[in-house]
Amino acid sequence: MVGNDWVNSYLEAILAAEPGIGDSKSSLLLRERGHFSPTRYFVEEVITGFDETDLHRSWIQAAATRSPQERNTRLENLCWRIWNLARQKKQVEGKYAKRTAKRHLERERARMEATADMSEDLSEGEKADVPGEIHTPSESTKGRMSRISSVDVFENWFAQHKEKKLYIVLISLHGLIRGENMELGRDSDTGGQVKYVVELARALGSMPGVYRVDLLTRQVSAPDVDWSYAEPSEMLNPLSTESTDQEHGESSGAYIIRIPFGPKDKYVEKELLWPHIPEFVDRALSHVMQMSKSLSEQIGGGKPVWPVAIHGHYADAGDSTALLSGALNVPMVFTGHSLGRDKLEQLLKQGRPKEEINSNYKIMRRIEAEELCLDASEIIITSTRQEIEEQWRLYDGFDPVLERKLRARMKRGVSCHGRFMSRMVVIPPGMEFHHIVPHDVDNDGEGARDDENPQSADPPIWSEIMRFFSNPRKPMILALARPDPKKNLVTLVKAFGECRPLRELANLTLIMGNRDDIDELSSTNSSVLLSILKLIDKYDLYGQVAMPKHHKQLDVPEIYRLGAKTKGVFINPAVIEPFGLTLIEAAAHGLPTVATKNGGPVDILRVLDNGLLVDPHDQQAIADALLKLVSDKNLWGRCRQNGLKNIHLFSWPEHCKTYLSRIAGCKQRHPQWQRIDFENSAPDSPSDSLRDIQDISLNLKLSLDGEKGEGKSTNLDTEDSSSERKAKLEKAVSTLAQKSTSTEKAYGSSKTPTLKRRKYIFVISVDCDQASDLLKVVKTVIDVAGRSRSSIGFILSTSMNVTETHSTIISGGLSPQDFDAVICNSGSELYFTSPASEDKTKLPYALDSDYHSHIEYRWGGESLRKTLVRWISSVHEKKKREHGGEILSEDESSSTNYCLSFKVKEPAMVPPMKELRKLIRIQALRCNAVYCKGGAKLNVIPVLASRAQALRYLLVRWGVDLSKMVVFVGDIGDTDYEGLLAGVHKTVIVKGVASEAAARVIHGNRSYPLEDVTPINSPNITEAEQCGRDCIKAALEKLGVNIVNTSG
């Protein structure tokens, strides 16, 4: 095991030590083992997977002890510590087995329930389908990857849509991103993903039919980073300038757009960006809105040009993309790059506590973001099938078996009963090959001279490597990887050292990053390097192994060229390789390859056909594969030619063709309004507000007394009741649509909503258990506005339906006309107040029906309701021994077409939100569940709907400036509370208005701490110590909101 040679040595010292080990006082562990070899057992079985840094340090101290008796005692104690590690390892393995079994049972149950709902077994076509696979007409797949078939799709699509000019948005938040001289490896956040997204943006910007590509990232203005990262925008130079405008068509190009968010003047790691995601979403939304307007003038003929897709990279950007695509109602694409659940499993296997893992990596927040990406994405792009089959299947929101079934049903036009699953697509990363010129090699292995510059000197890195070798003319086996145990370099050195024929034929070059002093590296990296140095000494490999301490990024192509010049071989022996970009780079320079059979290299070598796959744990297999390639010149030549011939399949143009064909296959959606925007020429006046908008007026003819009567009792299993309810709701929506159409014609010259012209907009989103507490906050906020009310708009945002909201307003002596708008049912409905009517049975609110069309994406409707009813039954079954009555019941009187409401009679006995989300996701149902009123109510709404998203809709639909909003919240609230805290708006946290006991019920068992998503020291967030006029006024002044001067 890598880094554990010291264990072998100190255990041998224990066995050889005297006195102490052989007498009656010797270690119980060794006495029980008898003649069993503890050295071999501990090294090969016990230590695997554990961080032994502390033990290593103890061993060094013990070995330095002069007294034999003390040294033996300390070594024996170390032996006991190893035994404890063995016990811990068994416990970890047991917990892992339980998690796996539980996940399997949950999946099987979900499949059975889904199959029962859809009343159909898997057909033969569904069984044959593989996730992410695209079948080709030919049976032979050798030398081809299935993705190539989509090129024909792209060409056919482009022929039909060549006049279209696409706008694509990419998002990658963390790290330092710029187009030239990328600082790859500067830190853990600035790595391969940075290079990938920049090259993808550049390549897409050069594709025919693509007019503009924006890569959104974080603007960093910090003293410890280069000034270029503070530039608001940067144009990316195209891949090649040889193509004509006729080939590519009209194009604006690709740009890096840097959005300021998070701590100012500070570069922070990705784990600390989570609290600032809403701020990025708000600012990115403004950018896309501005760009849509600009493009409408350039290429849209006056009509807005929306992104054809928004593509998020990594979990943080994925979370942002889900919110942004929801606010704009455009398709979302996601690439994980690396996944949180896979990392969590690996760390748990090492015995690390989950609390420690989450504290260091914010892993649960990351996982929830990735689950949201599965909820919201049209397409998930992966590099390999291994990522689908072994990593994505760990998530609640993705099941390969159910995905195949749903896809087959959609192909046949059969209903999926409200179930949705993102399409997994394998598109390997592209590469830039235009600058690569493979080194010519003659039959004797000598590199041909450059005819244009025969006197050119060899690159400096060549001499830096060659100085290690006693015979530099031998073929070079090249490995390029970090000194990480997962890269398996120690096994490679052992294979080389123990194979005498291989040592005689070849040299070994290990490019393992940059270092000045091994002691300055991390303990893991230094242990790998020390192990390699010991092996070099053990096998006497001096003069045969090169380990240069430094190299530049620009040196990497020259290192590949050197390998090809010597007729060498490139090897990637990693235990698991998610993709294997270095294999493609090596092939582009004419190097045959040997690669691990675990992960992405399987797909790569299937396409390139330029090398051999090996078991990374089989040392002999690694040596045999290397020996075969360096000794057989004909085989080496065929592999080299195959790689050079097929390498174009991994070029960026090929990647982009597949990419664009996939996006073209998405169901296109974008903001569509039933009415047009109107010129806003009327001046502000005290009576000028959204309640005066006649173009969207719709008096909801709801009888307050009638609704109260309907909510007395319901039977969840009564089909007649649900059918009647559904018919009523459909009739209401139909009536709403008809009236909306008629009012558009009647009031086509009406004014634009005046919320857009308010100086400030106060959004009251305080969640209280009692209506009296809410009214107290509302009255206080309105009172603070005082004489400035004419220039301040008011929005009431609650979990109540419109009838309950109206009753609450009236009971407090307030008028609905005191508010410009109300957001109801946890953000699933948006109403504007209209003038009071003489008919008291009519509610004075106008429903914005465009908002429903904006949020209905993947709404499960009746199928979702049935699943929730079944869940309620299971909850009752589990809790009936502890509680005699009902725990949950459906609240039909509060439910609407886009909100399913449930009454919670025993909040403390209801499963936590994370369990409910899990249940819904494994059923492939996509929604947003919210516990409200201190846990006394459950609202289930569309997946991308929320109170925060409703505010963003006001910007998209009506152009309302989010920075003018002041959101009032309590010190705790509903489970959607966190979405209201951050953003470009200002937030006042009113202390003491929420029940702490209720908060513990609904927030006590969260997936991740609320602190992980709460901005610290944000200038846009302040607290009011209590719900008093002076406290709230003081809080507003801290935020720069001067009430006295607003009327001016």
Automatic annotation (TrEMBL):
Residues 114-142 are annotated as: Disordered. Residues 787-995 form the Sucrose phosphatase-like domain. Keywords: Glycosyltransferase, Transferase. Pfam families: Glycos_transf_1, GT-B_Sucrose_synth, S6PP. Its EC number is 2.4.1.14. It comes from the Eukaryota. Homodimer or homotetramer. This is Sucrose-phosphate synthase. It comes from Arabis nemorensis.
